[in-house]
Specification:
Blueprint: H1 2-19, E1 22-30, H2 34-49, E2 55-63, H3 68-79, E3 84-89, H4 101-110, E4 115-117, E5 134-136, H5 144-154, E6 159-165, H6 168-191, H7 198-205, E7 208-215, H8 221-229, E8 235-239, H9 242-254, E9 263-266, H10 274-278, E10 284-288, H11 294-315, H12 335-344, E11 347-350, E12 353-355, E13 368-374, E14 377-384, E15 389-391, E16 415-420, E17 428-431, E18 452-457, E19 466-472, H13 474-486, E20 489-494, E21 503-505, E22 512-514, H14 516-522, E23 528-534, H15 537-540, E24 543-545, E25 550-559, H16 576-599, H17 619-631, H18 643-671, H19 686-689, E26 697-698, H20 704-711, H21 716-723, H22 730-738, E27 744-748, H23 749-758, E28 762-779, H24 785-797, H25 800-809, H26 815-819, H27 826-882, H28 890-912, H29 932-937
Parallel strand pairs: 1-2, 1-3, 3-4, 4-5, 6-7, 6-8, 8-9, 16-20, 16-23, 18-20, 26-27
Antiparallel strand pairs: 10-13, 11-12, 13-14, 14-15, 17-19, 18-19, 21-22, 23-28, 24-28, 25-27, 25-28
Helix pairs in contact: 2-11, 3-4, 5-6, 16-17, 16-18, 17-18, 20-21, 27-28
Membrane topology: Multi-pass membrane protein
GO molecular function: metal ion binding; NMDA glutamate receptor activity
Subcellular location: Cell membrane; Postsynaptic cell membrane; Postsynaptic density membrane
């Protein structure tokens, strides 16, 4: 029974408690006392719509205090002590006291109590690392960038100059606008607007900031605006405080930058107080609708808070907010959850319009009035409805200078900064004369070379000082032609780092920046690139290329192998084995001819019986015949006589004819024609695809060729090899090829073919690959891009480009040499002359041997003749004695004695030389005829 009564009492107490709604305190820090009643009325109105039986809102309000400390104490003692669920804070009435909401945000944020700003528009409150629990029903000043961006699109202004103060507000506006521009550019790339014609692409691509200029209190505004005046853009966006804006307007008026052709877009701060009195006519300004209507913002903020509390009570268990600041360091556990509910809430029917918050807690879909400053008064000419600009066609805009027609937004500067690079034959760089001018030279066709002064680093002087130099070549002639056609002047400078341009990481971070000519163009140091700049996709994403002025590809440069003639050059047509076989064949045939003619019964014959028989073919004659047939020297004697030998001789003559003809045909190829070692066949050559340290090839660092190999996955092996050997410039690489330090250099075909035509020890090899073209580079927003392309197309049509090609690229010094008829030199035929000299020396040596042999033979023959004469005389005397004749005639006897004496003396000499045994003599020196040896001879 007792338990039943206890349960009844508990249920009654719970029912009684449920009938009484929970009191939820809402705090407010208001700018003036009169808004306290507005706050209470808004709370009472919210109680009628939200909560009802579950909760009841209670309004607790204070006004702004004189300083931040008093304000923080008031928040703790008057609001947090009352356990408020949220605090509304308005902007203080004094514009100079713009940091007053900060102590409210800091104090409430420490306990994670949500703070809802009412009229505070400073961008610093969007930083959630500082203001943890801050939301607001107004957008920050930087949100005006959305309206500026849409206005630029509405009027098709694609060239803008952004001038911002060097403070948090200026940097926030700059960041917001640049983000919008980048997002637009990214979307356009995905939509492939590049396929449209140039005008359509410009309109759809949207605007882009040509220059961002920051200034501070110490900045010389006149110098700053002079820099802006030099730019082509004429649309100026200003984000500054009231005082700074007034100073900018004064300086702009002094420089005549507020007249016809200019457009000034500003925000709300730049058209208030002192700034409005200095503002130029025709200025376009923005004003937030209900931006300063504190009553309306109080009503909308209370409604949003009440709506969020109701949602929170329905879904979550809510803990009590902290009570006071003294001794309390605990955060409100439900605070972060309540903030998320507030940020996700939507209140479509607010007095200030549709109330929603973004991720930073700032108001979305804010509405602006677009105002035009006409005759010292602001006239509404349109609105921004939160998503787009809607102009009022009934009210005409009066632009600066009193113009009624929309300004074009840019002015084409007639003084262009041209950047180029030393790359022969497109750009030659030579020092100036002592008086600073360029000397006059004539081209090979007799035309005077046009030269321009170009400042840049001098590579020949240590430290590479920036000095004036003379530039001329293909690209310089093209620049002069474009300047005459499009009526602009120019100043030329050489790129500082000597590079064409590629992206590189900054301090090993993920951020990449362009270097070389690309970096100077994108950085505003140049208006146009006039150089052999290769058109590729990576560069085309950032800059605008003209139509190609020169079509080309990549090729490979190697050193030409010049054959060296040796003394045995005339023997090169046949291998040594073949020479050996030919020589052996000569002697074998000679022997066979001798044998056939020797053993043939018809090897000797006589015409009739009275004539003597002819001698058969001797071995010497056969040898002479064999060599004579082979060398085609003519045969005077010693021909074979037999039919069998003559058949062999005919076959040998045919063999000799074939051998001699083959030798003669190959001799020309070996002595005259080049036979270099096998060259590179192209990009797919095994020596390139399978790199090794024995064959080194490279290109230029951070060039389009380097980018090409880096991007191609199938060429990654080649790129890793090249990366270690790449050169700083093409000239260095070409010289390395000539010095045999580099085996192959991969570069633009137009340049390499020119170098090969000028330096006869170089040659290009393989087919072209990665075909592309050279184009003139400009920024995406350049007003010259379409005119430059049209001028280049016209130059192609009228033959001007063809003339430039003939003058600078196609002239070849080596052509006359390579196409001239091949002639033999002494080096080619030196071996033949040495062979003749050897023959002469051999002949002289053999003639001495022959003379000595002849003398020896003649002496012996004379001795034998004397011996036979003596024998004949002796024989006759002997016959006379036997026949009984008288003594011989004394004259004959004396003759015989003389012969005997001469023969005896000769025999003595021979005996003394111990060469031969001669017949003995008697004591008187006469021939001893009784000696057996003498009788034997007789």
């Amino acid at each position: 029974m007792r338990l039943f009564l206890l349960a009844v009492l508990l249920s009654c107490s719970c029912a009684r408690a449920g009938c009484e709604p929970k009191i939820v305190n809402i705090g407010a820090v208001l700018s003036q006392k009169r808004y306290e009643q507005v706050f209470k009325d808004a709370v009472n109105q919210a109680n009628q719509v939200y909560g009802r039986d579950k909760f009841k809102l209670n309004a607790i309000s204070v006004t702004h205090k004189a300083n931040a400390i008093q304000m923080a104490l008031s928040v703790c003692e008057d609001l947090i002590h009352s356990q408020v669920y949220a605090i509304l804070v308005s902007h203080p009435p004094q514009s100079s006291d713009h940091l007053t909401p900060t102590p409210v945000s800091y104090t409430a944020g420490f306990y994670r109590i949500p703070v809802v700003g009412l009229t505070t528009r400073m961008s610093i409150y969007s930083d959630k690392s500082i203001h943890l629990s801050f939301l607001r029903t107004v957008p920050p000043y930087s949100h005006q960038a959305h309206v500026w961006f849409d206005l630029m699109r509405e009027f098709n202004w694609n060239h803008i100059i952004l001038i911002v103060s060097d403070d948090h507000e200026g940097r926030a506006a700059q960041k917001r606008l640049e983000t919008l521009l980048e997002e637009r550019e990214t979307k356009n790339k995905k939509r492939n607007y590049e396929n449209l014609d140039q005008l359509s692409y410009d309109n759809k691509r949207g605007p882009k900031a040509e220059k961002v200029l920051q200034f501070s209190q110490e900045t010389n505004l006149t110098a700053l605006l002079l820099e802006a005046k030099e730019l082509e853009a004429r649309v100026v966006i200003l984000s500054a405080s009231e005082d700074d804006a007034a100073a900018v307007y004064k300086a702009a008026r002094f420089l005549n930058m507020t007249g016809s052709g200019y457009v000034w877009l500003v925000g709300e701060r730049e058209m208030s107080g002192k700034a409005l009195s200095e503002a130029p006519d025709g200025l376009i300004a923005l004003q937030l609708i209900n931006g300063k209507n504190e009553s309306a913002h109080i009503t909308d903020a209370v409604a949003v808070v009440a709506q969020s509390i109701q949602e929170l009570f329905e879904k979550e268990n809510i803990t009590e907010p902290p009570k006071g600041c003294v001794g309390n360091t605990n955060i409100w556990k439900t605070g972060p959850l309540f903030k998320r509910v507030l940020m996700s809430s939507k209140y479509p029917e607010g007095l200030t319009g549709r109330v929603e918050f973004n991720d930073d807690g700032d108001r979305k879909y804010a509405h602006y009035t677009i105002l035009n400053y006409q005759k010292s008064r602001l006239v509404q000419v349109g609105i921004y409805n939160g998503t787009q600009v809607v102009m009022n066609n009934q009210r005409k805009i009066i632009w600066p200078g009193g113009e009624t027609e929309k300004p074009q937004g840019f002015q084409m500067s007639t003084r262009l900064k041209i950047v180029t690079i030393h790359q022969e034959p497109f750009v030659y760089v030579k020092p100036t004369m002592q008086d600073g001018t360029c000397n006059e030279e004539k081209a090979l066709n007799g035309v005077i070379i046009k030269k321009v002064i170009c400042t840049g680093p001098n590579e020949t002087i240590p430290g590479r000082p920036i000095v004036p130099q003379c530039c001329y070549g293909f690209c310089v002639d093209l620049l002069i032609k474009l300047a005459m056609t499009m009526n602009f002047t120019y100043e030329v400078h050489l790129v500082a780092d000597g590079k064409f341009g590629t992206q590189e990481r900054v301090n090993n971070s993920n951020k990449k920046e362009w270097n070389g000519m690309m970096g100077e163009l994108l950085g505003g140091l140049a208006d146009m690139i006039v150089a052999p700049l290769t058109i590729n996709n990576e560069r085309a994403q950032y800059i605008e290329f003209s139509k190609p002025f020169k079509y080309q590809g990549l090729t490979i440069l190697v050193k030409k192998e010049i054959p060296r003639s040796t003394l045995d050059s005339f023997m090169q047509p046949f291998q040594s084995t073949l020479w050996l076989l030919v020589g052996l064949s000569v002697h074998v045939v000679a022997v066979m001819l001798y044998l056939l003619d020797r053993f043939s019964p018809f090897g000797r014959f006589k015409v009739n019986s009275e004539e003597e028989e002819e001698d058969a073919l001797t071995l010497s004659s056969a040898m002479w015949f064999s060599w004579g047939v082979l060398l085609n020297s003519g045969i005077g004697e010693g021909a074979p006589r037999s039919f069998s030998a003559r058949i062999l001789g005919m076959v040998w003559a045919g063999f000799a004819m074939i051998i001699v003809a083959s030798y003669t045909a190959n001799l020309a190829a070996f002595l005259v024609l080049d036979r270099p070692e096998e060259r590179i066949t192209g990009i797919n050559d095994p020596r390139l695809r399978n790199p090794s340290d024995k064959f080194i090839y490279a290109t230029v660092k951070q060039s389009s060729v380097d980018i090409y190999f880096r991007r191609q996955v199938e060429l990654s092996t080649m790129y890793r090899h090249m990366e270690k050997h790449n050169y700083e410039s093409a000239a260095e690489a070409i010289q390395a090829v000539r010095d045999n330090k580099l085996h192959a250099f991969i570069w633009d075909s137009a340049v390499l073919e020119f170098e090969a035509s000028q330096k006869c020890d170089l040659v290009t090899t393989g087919e072209l690959f990665f075909r592309s073209g050279f184009g003139i580079g400009m920024r995406k927003d350049s007003p010259w891009k379409q005119n430059v392309s049209l001028a280049i197309l016209s130059s192609h049509e009228n033959g001007f480009m063809e003339d430039l090609d003939k003058t600078w690229v196609r002239y070849q010094e080596c052509d006359s040499r390579s196409n001239a008829p091949a002639t033999l030199t002494f080096e080619n035929m030196a071996g033949v002359f040495m062979l003749v000299a050897g023959g002469i020396a051999a002949g002289i040596f053999l003639i001495f041997i022959e003379i000595a042999y002849k003398r020896h033979k003649d002496a012996r023959r004379k001795q034998m003749q004397l011996a036979f004469a003596a024998v004949n005389v002796w024989r006759k005397n002997l016959q006379d004695r036997k026949s009984g004749r008288a003594e011989p005639d004394p004259k004959k006897k004396a003759s015989f004695r003389s012969i005997s004496t001469t023969l005896a003396s000769s025999i003595k000499r021979r005996r003394s030389s111990k060469d031969t045994q001669f017949p003995p003599t008697d004591a008187t020196g006469q021939l001893n005829l009784s000696d057996p040896s003498v009788s034997t001879v007789v």
